[in-house]
Amino acid sequence: MRETTVLRGDAPVAPAEAIQRMANRSLKSRITDRLAYIAVRVAICVVQALPRPFLERQARGWSDFLANRVKIRRTVVRENLRQAFPDWTDAECREAARAMWEHLLLMVIEIAHAPRVIRKTTWRRHLRIEGMEKFVRTMWLDRPKVVLSGHYGNFELAAYIFGVFGFKLFSVARELDNPLLDRFVTDFRESRGQTILPKRGSAPDVAAVLEEQGAIGLLGDQAAGLKGCRVDFFGRPASVHKAIGVFSLSSAAPVIVCSATRRDGLFSFDIRVEGVVDPHDERPETADLTALSQWYTSLLERAGGLSGVLVFRQSISAPRLCAKCMN
Fold first, then answer.
1. To 10 degrees, what angle do helices 243-251 and 289-307 make?
2. If residue 303 lies in a helix (H) or strand (E), which one and from where to where?
3. Each residue's pLDDT tens digit, 262-298
4. Which residues constitute the domain of residue 248?
């Protein structure tokens, strides 16, 4: 187990391995990490100090600059848009690419302002929730649970709001290369009761959570390379991690697929339960690992296709895989 006791609800404590990671880095890396950390903290302070309507206008202006002038990852975005939506015109693809960057900038603004905006008494002003009864009923089962979403909409805000509602979620996430930024992001994620388990070496913690009837949170659209489970995603062969299906099938844990998609502007989201499947029901979706993986991948595709676009480079033949999100 980690230094922090996982299942007792203790306050988050900076683990010793994070301090050790910083100490083991070279002097140049430590200086670079600290400068990056200071820059990010200053930027977040500025964002928190500015009015949200002004930030929203700036996000739209900067999105056009990032998509069409700087052209960051433009080839990947255009290629995947053509694959997913072959009937779209060049103008529609350009607008989708711009909207992706606008959404990402708005997502940063929302994360900075979330503690002030999203509370037990205010969340109804900003969020609409569909399928909450099904979600609550499943989460209250005295059994292990797997909560699943994807890299689109504001998935960070979805996990945050579940903590506001009082649900204890243990989410698996990759550690950032910069230990200081990793601690900063983890502190935000854990500020409303969510507990972050590092992706590397978290198998014992995940097993403990499932054994004690807890809920594991995962993102199901991460590329797994040649060793993953092969599925069809937007008409293309893709590879997803087997761990999700293994967690569910080995512990008979229901899988809840959720999405948080933007309606318009800041803090305007629909949070939906896209589907729930229970291995106890012996449905075709839980017949084996491949069937379960394809089931939740199809739900994520449908959610992304209806509410926006998922921009992916995810192929079973490519050793280097990555994912980008948009509304």
1. 120
2. helix 289-307
3. 888 888 888 889 999 999 998 999 999 999 999 999 9
4. 50-168+214-324
